[in-house]
Design goal:
The protein has 254 residues and is mainly beta. It has two helices and 16 strands. It starts with a helix and ends with a strand. 15% of the residues are buried.
Length: 254
């Protein structure tokens, strides 16, 4: 037989696609956006009937007794919804700061330490004075340094501010909103999981299942690569998929 004829029937797939999740109580799907990989692992347990009548042991019968379908995916889009999966967090909470002015806010500073100011997003003009007399105005980057975005101040050893000195701070600050989540707030993250294939070439594959999703590994807060993290999943029986743990669909070829 002509080998070229056989090769024309080969199906080589270079996988691409998006990963969607939703809770049982939700109608619409959350797109996890930039997913670097999506893998499905099948583990099968068998029970063998062995003959020991003579010589080498022989398998007379082998029966499949269980099958687990698990997997993992790597996310490189660290938006708040995705990070809730990584930290196993509950609902997010927004904390807002309106525009305002600090007047003689008192702080005590120490060498080699940052001190938190009560507000963030500080204005370019910040006045720092000694609390004792209010007559000494200290100089930024000579006597102290500021992280305006985070609202932090630290004295510079060798400047005019002494260790453990009490200061006053005057400045304007801008509005800002932060979104906060608390890790370890939930014990399970059960979701419907849908891989929607869009391959560079090959079979257009869809996978659907119901699974418990849990994080694994690191999230690099400092590094030279784009942030990413891994989530594992274990499929469970669900009425939406009555014929097994996972549904696979072939949507044709590209």
């Amino acid at each position: 037989m002509n080998e070229n004829v056989l090769e024309s029937n080969y199906t080589d797939t270079l996988g691409r696609g998006k990963v969607l999740v939703k809770k049982d109580s939700e109608n619409n799907w959350l797109d996890l956006c930039s997913v670097e990989s999506f893998n499905v692992t099948v583990t099968t347990e068998t029970l063998d009937k062995i003959s020991l009548r003579s010589g080498i042991k022989r398998i007379q019968k082998s029966v499949t007794v269980s099958q687990n379908i698990e997997g993992n995916f790597v996310i490189s889009d660290t938006n708040i919804e995705n990070l809730k999966l990584f930290f196993m967090a509950g609902d997010e909470v927004d904390a807002s700061q309106t525009t305002g002015t600090l007047v003689a806010e008192e702080v005590t500073v120490n060498y080699n330490r940052w001190t938190k100011i009560s507000k963030e997003n500080l204005d370019a003009v910040v006045t720092v004075k000694d609390k004792a007399t209010g007559l000494i105005t200290y100089v930024e980057n000579t006597d102290y340094i500021l992280d305006r975005k985070a609202g932090l101040i630290a004295p510079i050893e060798g400047g005019d501010i002494t260790d453990n000195e009490e200061l006053t701070i005057d400045c304007d600050y801008a509005a800002r909103t932060i979104t906060r989540i608390s890790g370890g707030a939930v014990t399970s993250q059960k979701r419907h999981l849908w891989f929607v294939g869009d391959p560079a070439e090959g079979v257009i594959q869809h996978y659907k299942c119901y699974a418990n999703i849990f994080p694994s590994g690191d999230l690099a807060a400092i590094g030279d690569e784009w942030q990413q993290f891994t989530c594992n999943f274990k499929t469970e029986v669900h009425s939406a998929y009555p014929n097994g743990y996972i549904e696979y669909e072939d949507h044709g070829k590209r």
